[in-house]
Queue: 3 jobs
Job 1
Amino acid sequence: MGQWQYHFLKMASRLVCLLPYTWVLAIGAQVGKLYYRIAKKQRERALRQIQERMDLSPQAAQAIIASLCAKLGQTVMEVLYIPALTPEFIAKHITIENRHYLDEALAEGHGVVFLTGHMGNWEWLGAVMSIIGFPMTSVIRRQENDQVTRFLNENRQWSGIEIFAKGTNEMLGAMRALKQKKILGLVADQDAGVDGQFVEFFACPASTPSGPAVFARRFKAPVVSVFIVRKPGGGHRVLVQPPLYFVEQDGEEADLLRLTQEMTTLTEQVIREFPDEWLWFQKRWATRPASTQEEKNEKS
């Protein structure tokens, strides 16, 4: 009884995997449209943030967020559909653009920091890259609901991803993965709280995780940003970006900050190109610079 949500998700996944992919997308779009109507708090936050950061009219913002919700519904259905992913399905529905950037970075022999964000179906991104043969590992944040976390982790491991959960021994696991020349997947587009580095994101200071830059410095690993967006007619495009590197130039702290800014700027550029693919609901600018030192002092 205590695990009923997990078992419900497993049962729903089995049923969804029996459907044609076109049905999965059609049902998901309708679920997303319903979410747009009923999730008032999230909708209003997304509309406010996208208007402020992209200087859009209310009408333009509504169109983008409505499209985002429809795509988000499709993502939810596709997450349930992960056990149906096969190399043949991927070859038919997923296009990987500029894969050579990732192949070349991996060939350097230092491991790769694989940076992505909450764009498109990021759960499919890791699963697809693992199924087609990349040695994927990932540091993941636990969901508020442990049963959902269990379901998602089982799918990730089924696809071949080695996962390290935050709050356990994730740092040791991540370091071991890079030493073994594997790909370390990190999602770094969320507010990092008082311990993050403030960089410009949509012309506003945003507390950003420093982990990707720290790993890049310590292991001389290239940072390759990879995003996944939807094709208009169904399926996905995986967009592999040119690698970024830690460069010793102005001292460790300044060099880490510069690389973090470069990664964040790259993420912003992709979001601007595909604004209805990014989760505008999230509280990305929740931590303010003025409050950071005060909060750190309170902790100490």
Job 2
Amino acid sequence: MQTTAMRGRGIVAVLLLGLSAFSLQAKTTLTLGAAQNSLGSLPLVIAQQKGFFADEGLQVDTVSFKGGAPAVQALAGGSVAACICAADHAVRLQNRHLGGRVLVALTEHHGYGLVALANNPAAQLSDLRGKNVGITSPGSLTDNTLRYYISEKGLNAERDFRLVGIGTGGPMRAAIESGAVQAGMLTTPDVQAALADPRFKLIQDFRTLQYPALDLVVVDRWLNAHRDEAQRLTRAVIKAEQVIQTDPVAVQAGVDKMYPRLSPALRKVLAEEAPKLLSHDGKMAPQGYQLMVKMLKVADPTLSAPDYSAITVPDLLSKG
């Protein structure tokens, strides 16, 4: 005969199962599109490791794309909720009347350096005049950056240089080593890996520039329909950014997760650089946005740049 106590335990078990099932059903899945696998994505990795997404009732999945252009195409088409890409894509989306917004800033600084072989006689960008110089792709952050600094030196990117789209990471390094390009743009962790090798040297370091090089970019259509999810996503990422500024052990664990094939020494270097590179509060710096607009206008003088307030979502950040 079933006792009262047994019946009570059964009811509790059924309730717990019901609550568990409800929790699983209530979890919202968000798919993000990643333009690159750089250190800028570390806040998302740590948010996952620390359970910050789960705390917000989110299941966050990431799909990798070969660069910003296809990732943004997926964003505009609605197949991903947000793009892990440069803020300049938000500007271009607004120019296409698609309402691009920077939901959360991931990086505080530009992540690229211009790298050449150590025996290359060039000591600065202008010394590469008339040579092949590697960019990731036309219209990319690397393209815009080099065009801006070439113009700052009174030179013309079309007339005086040959900017060649190579891609990222391994292909770019191979192009530099083979002489297909005299120098090329590398970002984390590839720039640190190259500079740890005495066969390479740095021609120009852009990593000290305040620049929104990697962010979570969304479009208004999704943001207006999913404001609660956007708020929860923002909150989880900002919490991870704060951890990066205060918890070196968590930072090292995140870097180890992202780059298991790199040497422990190089992973240690990346963990030390992460707090300097990354945003500490999710806010895109206005100065960085203005520099980005200047760079974009060199490549496309007809570009209409929205006001800073029109491309950010400050009310969600303030509630983070």
Job 3
Amino acid sequence: MVAEVRSGLVKLEAELSSVLFGQERVIRELLATAIAGGHALLEGLPGLGKTMLARAFSEASGLSYRRIQFTPDLLPADVTGTEILEDGAFVFRPGPIFAQVVLADEINRATPKTQSALLEAMQEAAVTVAGERYPLPQPFLVLATQNPLELEGTYPLPEAQLDRFMSKITVTPPPRATWLRILREEPAPPKRVEGLDLLAAREESRQVVVSSAAIEAIANTAQLAQEDKRLRMALSPRGAKAWLALAKSLAYLAGRAHLDWEDLRAAAQPALSHRLLLSEEAQFEGITVEAVLQDLLRRTVAK
């Protein structure tokens, strides 16, 4: 059963790689997030294929898909849905959040109030409108794209919302060889992977064995982050569990029954980079989150 479920994921990964050229790391991190039951924040300059990847993932997975374009005038009810008067009674009309794969496109172009409308859906897999709770279809995955904050007309995501994304996946421009392929070749439409079962994969990935040393490594990193004066926000328990879950999914995708240090190292960047917030002094000195994270991992290994 394990081999059968995982073979579907291997086919899905190959299908996505035939759509988005040269972004194997991005695709692997996206699949790991979906298997772990989390949500992903895709960050990168416009035109790198973030929206294409989200749509291809839903089509190849056979999951329902809705796209929400976040703009400054988008209201919370435009996301969750609202009640309307129909034949003398109020009837709930679901918003675009009611899909298995929801693309929140350019999420940081909406105001914080509208961004927060996603919080309950992402955390609880349900929304509450007029006192009524409405569950969302499963599996449920929010893929949000974010433009770099230095671009005009963007709002930083609230810290509470950042922490609800299991991963932040950075999409970078491809190498030169991939540029040539992009210019010469049109990607084929994604084919649906028959028999794919993300919920079964989620259950199987939870069975990946984690050693005491791996647990201690996460705890040591969290402690080092708490003591680091370069950070004004360190690793939360939710962030630590997200790191572990993502690492287990990466081990599962690699076909291993045991998690090792390389899985934790590979999961650290997408799981932690948006949760570690620099102090003002560190920002002034030009220190980056990536540099702090690598330093924390190095000191964890040496501990």
